[in-house]
Amino acid sequence: MTKATELDNALSDRLAGISQAAGYFTDIRQIYGPLDRPSDRAETPYIQYRMLRDTREDTAGRQALRRRAYAIEVTFSKAAPTSDMDRVHLDVMRAMGFNEVDVDKRFPGLDDGEDEAEPQYPVDGVTTMRLIITLAVLYSETYR
């Protein structure tokens, strides 16, 4: 398994842990990967994540330092208050271990200097609203 695949799996696991029972504001109903197609009737809020880009930052021999950027899209019913989007942004960053002193609680390689949240509010005929959180992870991949 490649390091990139390991990161994708670890990201899914971290996001799946977001629940009120675990001390978060939000109860995420389902996690969808990049190839999954949530139904129009999927229970909200749910998360769908995907890799945006994976770029080489540096090279040393057969190893490369890479930056993998993810989009984490949290979908809500349009009836949800917009404050839910603020809460889930905090929840996602907490789940990733943002600014966590204990390195064992941090997502490996999380780039504390890169994250962004962009809301997409409902328009006519659309029954959902979304918050798209972008973050990046640095990792080392070996090419054999």
If you had to describe this structure to a student in words, what would you say it looks like?
This protein is of the alpha+beta class and 144 residues long. The protein has a single domain (3-142), classed as STM4215-like (2-Layer Sandwich), CATH 3.30.2000. The chain is built from two helices and five strands. It has helices at 3-16, 83-96, and strands spanning 30-32, 46-60, 63-77, 110-120, 128-142. A five-stranded mixed sheet has the order 1-2-3-5-4. The two termini are 13 Å apart. The mean pLDDT is 94.
| Strand fraction | 35-45%
Strand order, largest beta sheet: 1-2-3-5-4
Inertia-based shape: globular
Distance between the termini: 13 Å
- Tally of extended strands? 5
Helix and strand string, N-terminal first? HEEEHEE
Would you identify the CATH architecture?
A: 2-Layer Sandwich
* Uncertain ranges: none
- CATH homologous superfamily grouping: Phage tail protein-like
Helix content: 10-25%
Protein name: Tail terminator
Organism: Halopseudomonas salina
Outline of the structure:
The chain has 144 residues and is an alpha+beta fold. The chain is built from 2 helices and 5 strands.
